[in-house]
Every structure is written in C-alpha cells, then in structure tokens.
Automatic annotation (TrEMBL):
Transmembrane feature ranges: none
Organism of provenance: Methylovorus glucosotrophus (strain SIP3-4)
Protein name (record): Diguanylate cyclase/phosphodiesterase with PAS/PAC sensor(S)
Domain EAL: start-end pairs: 24-277
Length: 288
C-alpha cells in the first residue's frame, strides 16, 4: 500500500485528510446555521468559597444544541468558531445570556453574584458587534457582575494591544480571570506586566493532588505567588472532598468542579442554588 517515502505516506493519508476537510466544512456550515438560529444553550457551573462552601459565582459554559447529536461540547466547536470568525457572534450571545442571568440572580439570590464568561484569543483580539460595557449599562448592571476569562497564551506576547484591551475591560468594572493557569507556558515574567483579578489553577494540577506531593508543592507555590501579586485563586476540576480540603488548607480561595456540581442548564442551576441555600440556612438554624 503506502510507500515508505514521505511522499508515499502523504498519498496514503490524503484520503483521510480529504474526509477530515469534508467533515470540517460540513461542521462549519452547520455551525453558521446554528449561529443564525441561536441554537446554543448556556450552562452554569457554581464557583464556591472553599472555606464556607457558599456559591458566590458561576462560570458560563456554552453548549451547541445540535439537531442530531444533542448537546455538543465547546471543546469540539470553539476551535472551529475561532478559525471561522464565528466566535464573536457566539461569544456575544453567551455574554448577553450570562449578563441577564447575573442581573436576575443579583436580584433574587445574592446582590454581589458574579458570572464569568470565557473569551478565547481570537475573540479577545478582534472587535465583535456587541459593545459589552454598553450592554451592561443598558441593563443597569455594574461591571463587577461579570468576569472575563482569558488564557495565558494571550499574555505571552507582552503586547501593548493586549494590555490596552485588558485595561479597557477593567475600566468598565469587569474583572479578568486568567484561565487554565499553568498549562504549557513556563514564563512567569508576564504575570507582573498585566493587571488581572483571578488566577484559575488548571484541572491538570488538581487531578492527582492528593497523591502527588509535587503537585501539592506547585499549587502551594501558585497560591502564595498569586496572593502576593494581589490575585484571588480559583481551583478548577475539584472532584473529591479530599481535594477540596487540601486546597482549602493550602489557602486557595475559591473552587469549581464536579464534586460540588457539574455545569447545569439555567433552570437546574437556579433550583440547585435554592436547595444549597436552604441547606446553609438549615445549618445556620441548627447552629444558632
Ligand atoms: P474552561 O473555561 O477551562 O472550563 C472548564 C471546563 O472544565 C468545562 O468544560 C467544565 O465542564 C469542565 N469541568 C469543570 N469541573 C470539572 C471537573 O470536576 N472534572 C472535569 N473532568 N471537568 C470539569 P466545558 O464546558 O466542556 O468547556 C470546555 C472549554 O470550552 C472551556 O474550558 C472554555 O475554554 C471553552 N468554552 C466554554 N464556553 C465558552 C464560551 O462561551 N466562549 C468561549 N470562547 N469558550 C468557551
Ligand atoms: Mg473558563
Ligand atoms: Mg478553565
Ligand atoms: Mg480548562
């Protein structure tokens, strides 16, 4: 079949590559249609204080409601949305949903509730149609109600452009969370050149936290460093009670993960909040 030369191997694989390209263009067409139809749904995952376990924030995580495949994970379509430029339309829609939900929760659940919204690199570096700050003003919602999650890769370039955009976001009162911290880049120098508010320790450090003394040392160092720089720390992917307790002992401020709750559809999130609230109230009643 395939020749042993590089050229031959290319010929061997080209059929697969062609199929890949076809799949991609089909998915792009479907995604473009989904944007027109707004065939998305925002799920919310609680972010809680590690000391009191009180839910004080949530992360907005988009899903694509695909007619045949059901909910499609953002891990599958965000990269495509990024490369096709559809990301801004999707991101603006997610932002509007999240802002309106934050408004509702600040009225009904907690006056300082905050929702974080992910902004991928292309989305961060290009200008979408929606002026987020103006949307918040029209909603009569303070910037503090929203945190924008960006990833490390953006900060590596040490660019004036990125700095200016971060500043612009923070000037509106919105905060900046540095997502997936610790993955892929070892340079820490950029951390001191930007103003951020939250640092999110990537799930890969949390997975074997209780058995890996090295990961414990890394988390401890990250938490100490972040605090020295004036950032709060959020641990991602907490799946066990042990992980939660260990991170709390290490001084980590906040956490999110399947142990407390998976991302939930909006209505389920509201119901979940109500039940977790009544549990807290029960505990308070029992104590007092
Ligand atoms: P992320 O921002 O790092 O979000 C955290 C991901 O970890 C979510 O995956 C969440 O469901 C998952 N997760 C949370 N807790 C646990 C846990 O305890 N165990 C495990 N195994 N996983 C956990 P999800 O929802 O599939 O999102 C994947 C990524 O897609 C996000 O990673 C984010 O980078 C991107 N994304 C999601 N929504 C949006 C959006 O609206 N806009 C943009 N630009 N990107 C988005
Ligand atoms: Mg995120
Ligand atoms: Mg993350
Ligand atoms: Mg992540």
């Amino acid at each position: 079949l395939a020749k042993s030369t590089a050229r031959g191997q290319y010929a061997f694989y080209s059929h697969e590559l062609e199929e890949e390209a076809l799949k991609r263009s089909k998915l792009t067409t479907e995604l473009r249609f989904a944007v027109e139809e707004q065939a998305f749904e925002v799920f919310y995952q609680p972010i809680f204080r590690l000391d009191t376990r009180e839910t004080v924030k949530a992360e907005a995580l988009v899903r694509w409601k695909h007619p045949e495949r059901g909910y499609v994970s953002p891990a599958e379509f965000i990269p495509l949305a990024e490369s096709t430029g559809l990301i801004n339309a999707i991101g603006d829609w997610v932002f509007k949903e999240a802002a309106m939900f934050a408004k509702a929760l600040r009225g009904s659940y907690a006056p300082d509730f905050q929702i974080s919204v992910n902004k991928s690199p292309m989305q961060f570096l290009t200008v979408g149609k929606l002026d987020w700050a103006a949307f918040l003003t029209n909603l009569d919602l303070p910037g503090k109600a929203i945190s924008v999650e960006i990833t490390e890769g953006l900060l590596l370039q040490q660019s004036q452009e990125v700095n200016a955009r971060i500043k612009k976001i923070r000037d509106t009162g919105m905060s900046i969370s540095l997502d997936d911290f610790g993955t892929g880049y070892s340079s820490l120098s950029y951390l001191s050149s930007y103003e951020i508010d939250y640092l999110k320790i990537d799930r890969s450090f949390i997975i074997n936290l209780t058995t890996s003394s090295k990961n414990q040392a890394l988390c401890k160092a990250i938490i100490t460093m972040a605090h020295e720089l004036g950032y709060q720390v959020i641990a991602e992917g907490i799946e066990t009670e042990q992980q939660l307790q260990l991170l709390s002992a290490l001084g980590c401020d906040l956490g999110q993960g399947y142990f407390i709750s998976r991302p939930l559809p909006q209505q389920d999130f509201v119901a979940w909040l109500a039940s977790s609230l009544s549990t807290t109230q029960l505990a308070e009643a029992a104590a007092g």
